[in-house]
Structure formats: structure tokens, C-alpha cells
Amino acid sequence: MEIVVVPDAEAVAEYAAERIARAIRSRSADPYRSGAVIGVATGSSPLGAYAALAARVREGELDTSGVTAFALDEYVGLDPSHPESYHSVIRRTVTEPLGLDPARVHVPDGTADDLDAACAEYERRIREAGGIDLQLLGIGANGHIGFNEPTSSFASRTRIKTLAPQTRADNARFFDSPEQVPVHCVTQGLGTILEARQLLLVAQGEAKAAAVARMVEGPLASVCPASALQLHRDATVVIDRAAASELRLSDYYEYVQERLPGGAA
Fold first, then answer.
1. Which of 5, 44, 62, 195 is the most exposed place for a label (fewest CB within 10 A)?
2. Reduced 3-state DSSP string for 83-130
3. What is the C-alpha to C-alpha distance for residues 110 and 116, in angstroms, rounded to an integer?
């Protein structure tokens, strides 16, 4: 796992955007492969990265016309037209700003009559797309990634999950009242996430510091689902100094990145 500590949230966004842009350009330049397949996340943490990517698209620095995207999760029972459904959120924050083809942007179906079948279908679509080249992730205060709550199996696939009370409380700010936050969701599993070729997790602020420390320096344990990144051969964690504040070895991580070719830039 590569740990990149940068000064602030803006630097996190710029670093992440450039890594995603690099993955998109790499696939676009390969004549034997189709466009990049990017895994996209919701929540506050990735928003800066999306804005920085959108700026590159507007300025003609990045062509996203061939990109396929898969979202991590969706609420169960929330109509896709609801402003806080992840269908709507991904459209507002990813599809439209990045100029993606809506037909190539996929979000789990949380309103299907047969949710188990819909989960299996989502897994099939990811496989048929050739797998995910780069998966962008945030981290919840309780260590979840996607909606894989504590005690999720590291081998889990796309499935229905019950949201933890803390997750519902954290997400209540997006709804008119806490009671409106759905109780269930559909989420890619940890096993699904770990199959992406690259993982890129972003986190900002002291509120995420404890979860980041458990993910990076704690034991590999299902009680902190994000610790699964320790198992991945190409996982990068990009955090600002506030989110790094509880890491015991933060000085070492900065020492290492300063001595890499090109540093953290």
C-alpha cells in the first residue's frame, strides 16, 4: 500500500485527479484495448477529484468519450429520480461534469423486484466490461468502503447490506430528516473491489483520521473493512495532513514519498 500525504484537501483532489487521468490516457493509448473502466464513489471525499477532472475535460486536456464507469453502491427502495439516489448523485457529480456517455455509466439497481438477481447482473456487467482499471474509494468514519460495513467478508460480492446506524447518521445531512435515510443498500463487495487493477482511496480532515489509521496501520480485520486494501498489490491512499494525524508513521510515509522519483507530484 502506497501512502501519499499532502498538505490539504485541494492537493488530495489534484493528486487523485491526475492518477485517474493517467489511467484513462493509458487505456486510450492502447490500440488493443477499449476505453478505461473506472469505478466511481459517492460521498464528500471524491468530489474535489471529480471537479479537478472536470476542469481537465473542459480545458481539452482529457478525453473521456470512451470511459465506462461503475458506481460502488445504491440505496434500496429509493427511486432513481430521487435527488439523493446514487443514480442522481453520480449523474450530477460524475457523468455530466466529466462528459461521460450516460449509457456507459452503471449504478446498482436498488429498486429491482429481484435484488439478488440484480446484484448478480451487476457483477456480470463488470466482468463483460473487462474488469475495473481503477477504483476510486472514500472511507467512512467506521472504516467502511462502498457500503461494506464492519464485519463484511473480504470475499464478498455485490449484495444487499443493512446500513450501520453510524452510516445512516452520517448520511442524514443529505436528507430532510434522519428517518428518510434508507436502511438497506446494494453494494459491491470487498472481493469485487479487490479485483480492480488499481485502488485509489482519498480522505480529508480529522474526522477520518481514526479510520485511516485503522486501515493503514491496524490489523487486517473485518471490523475495519478498508483494511482489505492491505491485501491489494496496487493500492494508493491519498490523504491530507489532518487525515494523517493519527498515523504513527506519518513522518516515515512523507520521508518515503519525498525520495520516490518525482516525489508526490
1. 44
2. CCCHHHHHHHHHHHHHCCCHHHEECCCCCCCCHHHHHHHHHHHHHHCC
3. 10
Q: Which of 14, 73, 109, 240 is catalytic?
A: 73
CB 168 within 8 A of CB 181: yes
- Is 149 noted as a catalytic residue in this protein? yes
Q: What is the pLDDT of residues 164-183, one digit of tens each?
A: 999 999 999 999 999 999 99
Please say whether the beta carbons of 208 and 214 come within 8 A.
no
Structural domain contains residue 241: yes
CATH code (residue 158) = 3.40.50.1360
Q: Which of these is catalytic: 106, 109, 133, 144?
A: 144
164 DSSP 8-state letter: P
Structural domain total, the chain: 1
Which one of the listed residues 142, 148, 170, 171 is annotated catalytic?
Answer: 142
Residue 263 maps to a domain: no
Structural domain boundaries enclosing 145: 2-258
In a domain, 264, yes or no: no
Rounded Cα gap, residues 166 and 147, in angstroms: 12
- Which of 14, 109, 133, 149 is labelled catalytic? 149
Tell me whether residue 87 is one of the annotated catalytic residues.
no
pLDDT in tens, 22-49: 999 987 666 656 789 999 999 999 999 9
In the block, cell 493509448 appears at 29
In a domain, 119, yes or no: yes
Q: How far is CA 70 from CA 6, 43, 91, 214, in A?
A: 27, 15, 12, 27
- pLDDT(61) > 70: yes
